[in-house]
Write a structure and sequence with these properties.
Largest sheet: 6 strands, antiparallel
Number of helices: 6
Radius of gyration: 23 Å
Strand order of the largest sheet: 6-5-4-3-26-27
Helix content: 10-25%
Oligomer: single chain
């Protein structure tokens, strides 16, 4: 969360949290006095009981408890009282302009070649961190903003005390293009950080690292202590368990420092990936680089150089880039200026099976620092993140929905043929090197079977990405699939199983779990 310093590992006094899919992030709020006024004394702001009660939200009371909900209400009242300089009319005009230009520009694209953006959904969460869970829901978490002026730092990066707090929501993706889905608050455990103030608050676990555990939980490691000015070392290390001798990876041949950017483990048929494509992180350089067998080679460039960009693997094996900016809070006109002099970063890019990149339609908002993207089980893409742009383009900053989600539909639903379906999959874990059965109502459409690992994403890096094809045979409505040969090909855990037709159109995925003990 630093303003100018990219970080690889973020922890001074690390907060470690493991997030379960059912009882995830649940802990009671601490007891507190409902009459405590955090803005009294040094801040000089007095809040009446009538003002407080008018600001308290029933949903926050239900999710967090009365004391915590009242504390959030006081924060909002104080925020409005002390922060000026970015009026609602500016936000509304910017949002209207971006909506209009997106529609005009995208009207020239064929969805069958470039896909299309279908939904723009107000959200209660910035979603600086996201993780697709094996329930099909998406965990999103970040922080309570300390500014609603996008020309200032919105995150409590250097804040010590109670305002340095985390928050989290579960989002159930929509079933159609008019449904916004469902949001559920799942606050992190309340902790008393070692900052000497004795002010418990929801754990400030933003700017942490996170990854999946084999049982489908998400492990979160680290977090923001507040006022620590932390920065990550510029290192890339591998650990070899055979000789235990840590060693640095060779540098990329371009020699440029990267400002975030993305990396993708490239598909490798039925085997686990044996190469990684590293791209982005420099808005002046569109080159991409492949790392395989301990060596770097230059791959086909994208059309644009970008920093803060996300790149995903589609179920059909093609790649997709979305989001991008010049710097951490810089969209081309300097730090903390949400205006964009060059709209190119709003365009997506698509990479085909031959490695060629093509520019596509524009997303609604520019999204850079803290942008994220996730492949959903129905094959669509969730795009979210970048609290500065979300705040700068909020048509109603007082609504409580200070985040947004945009849904992108890839080209494959428009490329012909009936979409396959999956009726049933194993409900018990599947072992390695085993055969397992899948039932379908469209066996004639099932040309390929694919496992796609769910994405957990933050700071433009979509970790855990992996795509494997499975050998497929069978007759009638019952298909026989071969699971991956070993955990080296697909680590234990939950995966989305897609069936694809000859044109690469995927089914809606079903979840299966790989386990070495099955």
């Amino acid at each position: 969360m630093t303003h100018r310093r990219p970080r690889a590992v973020l922890a001074a006094a690390a907060v470690t949290a493991v997030l379960a899919t059912a009882t995830i992030l649940t802990a009671p709020a601490p007891a507190a006095s409902a009459t405590t006024d955090p803005f009294a004394g040094n801040r000089g702001l007095r809040i009446t009981g009538e003002q407080l009660q008018a600001e308290v939200r029933a949903a926050e009371v239900a999710a967090f408890g009365r004391p915590a909900a009242e504390s959030m209400a006081r924060d909002r009242i104080g925020l409005r009282a002390v922060q000026t300089g970015y009026p609602q009319t500016t936000r509304t005009n910017r949002f209207t302009m971006l909506t209009r230009t997106q529609g005009e520009f995208n009207s020239t694209f064929d969805p069958a070649k470039s896909g299309q953006f279908k939904q723009y959904i107000p959200s209660p969460e910035f979603a600086d961190h996201v993780a697709l869970l094996p329930t099909g829901k998406v965990l999103m978490f970040s922080f309570e903003s300390v500014e609603d002026n996008p020309q200032k730092e919105t995150a409590p990066t250097d804040v010590i005390g109670r305002q340095n707090a985390g928050r989290a929501y579960l989002w159930t993706p929509p079933a159609n293009d008019t449904d916004p889905g469902e949001f559920k608050a799942v606050p992190p455990p309340v902790v008393d950080m070692p900052d000497g103030l004795d002010e418990p608050r929801p754990a400030p676990f933003f700017c942490a690292g996170h990854s999946y555990l084999p049982n489908g939980m998400v492990g979160v490691f680290g977090g923001n202590l507040g006022g620590n000015g932390g920065t990550g070392a510029k290192l890339a290390l591998v650990f070899d368990p055979a000789n235990e001798t840590r060693s640095p990876l060779p540098n990329r041949p371009d020699g440029f420092p990267r400002l975030y950017g993305s990396a993708v483990a490239l598909p490798n048929g039925t085997a686990g990936p044996d190469s990684v494509l590293v791209l982005g992180g420099n808005y002046k350089d569109p080159d991409t680089f492949k790392f395989s067998g301990g060596r770097w080679t230059k791959d086909k460039p994208r059309n644009l150089g970008r920093a803060q960009d996300d790149t995903l693997i589609f179920p059909d094996g093609n790649l997709f880039t979305v989001n991008g900016a010049v710097g951490i809070r810089d969209y081309g006109l300097g730090d903390y200026n949400p205006n964009v002099p060059d709209d190119r970063f709003r365009q997506v890019e698509l990479r085909d099976a031959d490695g060629n990149w093509t520019l596509g339609p524009k997303q609604r908002l520019p999204r850079g620092y803290h942008s994220n993207a996730v492949v959903l089980p129905d094959g669509r893409i969730m795009v979210t993140g970048d609290e500065l742009q979300q705040i700068a383009n909020n048509p109603d900053i007082k609504s409580g929905n200070n985040g947004t989600i945009e849904i992108y539909e890839p080209p494959y639903p428009h490329q012909g043929g009936k979409r396959p379906d999956i009726r049933t999959v194993p409900t018990q874990p599947v072992g390695y090197g085993k055969k397992f059965r899948v039932n379908t109502d469209s066996p004639d459409q099932a040309a390929r079977a694919v496992l796609l690992a769910p994405v957990t994403s933050t700071h433009s890096v979509d970790t855990s990405q992996r795509r494997l094809e499975l050998k497929l045979a069978g007759a009638g409505s019952q298909l026989l699939l071969d699971s991956p040969a070993s955990a080296a090909d697909a680590p234990p855990g939950w995966y989305m199983l897609f069936l694809l037709n000859d044109a690469g159109v995927p089914s809606v995925a079903k979840w299966i779990q790989l386990s070495p003990n099955a």
